[in-house]
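Journal club side-thread
Mid-discussion, someone asked how the predicted structure for our own chain would compare to the paper's figures. Pasting it here so we can look after the session.
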Amino acid sequence: MSNNVVWREGVQVMRMDLHLHTEVSHDCRTPLRDIPGWMLRTNTRVIAVTDHDQQRGGPELQRMVRDLGLDDRLSVIAGEEVTTSEGELIGLFLSERIPPQLSPEDTVRAIREQGGLVLLQHGFDPFKRYRLRPEATVRIAHEVDIVETFNSRLSRPHWNRVAATWAQGRGLPMSGGSDAHTLRDIGEAWVETPFRRIETPQQLLDALREGTVGGQWTHPVYAYGRKQWRVLNGRLRRDGPLQGAPR
């Protein structure tokens, strides 16, 4: 596996992507086994696995990273993008799955009971079908730990700026999330920060406050088409030119 090490002014830096999906999500086929190599290649040293209403992807990937002997270079946070009764919220550092369709308040409570962090993602884009409803955002605003201020899949970059203004007004740490549904999308939004291992919520919050948010926005129509092509291309590569032919 190639190891892309990046230095800035004599300091090793890394990128963190705190919102992405894997084969554990119903709408994603990215194999967990392919992710460590991509993390090294892109210097995305910290990711949060936030599959839809599922938590097991994070722990499974953590085990793979340990088995590969990469746990001194890569950090995986077990998370979940939870479908509440009023839209989605992300929980980070979860030890077990949180069931969907709880109220936003009960979802926050379940995250807190596990010692986790509450991340508000794409909550300000009115065209995001599953965004947390504005009235729910108001009710739980005091419980938000991190605000996603760069999401690569919003309808317009404007809504990332709205999120940043909201976070700055509350003095909250800001994050980047690719919302990746294919392998090559992982790391398209990030926080760049000095390299370190991330094992606890406090370590993550400290790294976010020292970091800089960045990313690449992709128009959602183009992003959808690209996703379909990448999924099809991945299938063709796995199946080969002729079914059953030697590889």
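Post-session note: DSSP finds seven helices and ten strands in the chain.
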